[in-house]
Amino acid sequence: MRLISDQSILTLKGVTDACYRLGGGVTSFALLTRVGVSTLVKYSTLGERREDGSHEHGQTIIPLDIAIEADMRAGSPIILGQAVAELGFGLVPLEGRPAARQVTEADAHMVLAEAMDVSRAILEAGRDGRYDALEKRTICSEAREAIRALEQVIAGFEGAK
């Protein structure tokens, strides 16, 4: 019996998909890692339902080396952050790292635009009074993009300690 729950696997698959999207898509990421598109897709989807009720890729989780590469490509520890959260911990940026760049007016506009994307996704998806799986995935993906924009602002101010 595995120690990781089916819900944890599903959550990790969801954040893996979001990470691919933030990093420019699964097709472009496949060119930068050791596995192809079809294998990457297995890490972020359940696949087809089998006769016994299980899913084709239900137990397939992204390997650590590929998760690190995907997070690097996305610009933040999305997959690793969720994996650590599954253990009851959180990630903290290392002290003393220089800021990647100065915070500018463009950062303010990026934060606003990403937050508006989250708002728009929630409003559009909620028109019928409920959220289906695709709508939830879209909202979460937009929220992660907004979080990443906010983290870049924080890194710009706190990263240069």
Helix and strand arrangement:
Blueprint: H1 6-22, H2 26-30, H3 37-44, H4 64-74, H5 78-86, H6 105-125, H7 133-158
Helix pairs in contact: 1-4, 1-5, 1-7, 6-7
Task: Please tell me about this protein's structure.
The chain is an all-alpha fold. The protein contains seven helices and no strands. The chain has helices spanning 6-22, 26-30, 37-44, 64-74, 78-86, 105-125, 133-158. Helix 1 (6-22) crosses helix 4 and helix 1 runs antiparallel to helix 5 (78-86). The protein is globular, with a radius of gyration of 17 Å. It starts with 5 loop residues before the first helix and ends with a helix.
Count of individual beta strands: 0
Strand content: under 5%
What is the global morphology? globular
* Biggest β-sheet description: none
State the separation between the terminal residues, measured CA to CA.
46 Å
Report mean pLDDT, rounded to a whole number: 86
Secondary structural class: mainly alpha
* Gyration radius from CA atoms, angstroms: 17 Å
Low-confidence stretches: none
The secondary-structure element order is HHHHHHH
Number of helices: 7
Helix content class: 55-70%
Characteristic terms for this protein:
161 residues, mainly alpha, 7 helices, globular
